[in-house]
Amino acid sequence: MTDRVTKAVRSRNMAQIRSTDTMPERRVRSIVHRLGYRFRLHYTGLPGKPDIVLPRLRKIIFIHGCFWHSHGCCRARRLPQSNQSYWLPKLNKTRKRDQVNKRALRAANWAVLTVWECELQQIVSLTSKLNHFLTN
Ligand SMILES: [Zn+2]
Known about the structure:
It is a single chain. By secondary structure, the protein is of the alpha+beta class. Helix content is 46%, strand content 12%. The protein starts with 6 loop residues before the first helix and ends with a helix. The structure holds zinc ion.
């Protein structure tokens, strides 16, 4: 049997997969927006290219994927069994870079909050966490 998925369809499928990767970011943005805050996206010149920046409040929100940023949750522990010598240094590097970036931002007087991908499964508590961070 021949492969009946055309190139066009396949690249459209791939695009959809890619766009769902940005879903956590979009959902956090819409929560912050609904809480009544205005913000800048991908504010340039800041360490780590933060996902959401509120310059007037001097607050920053990072939205981190659990796997890439080595969250301690079950999603993050799904490390590929093959090629660990490839993944582990990569993940360690990301984790170190995150620490350096956050330290630099805090030293420059920014308040920094990290939202993990898995927290989007508990919208109510995530919303109150964001609300708490932004009002305090
Ligand atoms: Zn997680």
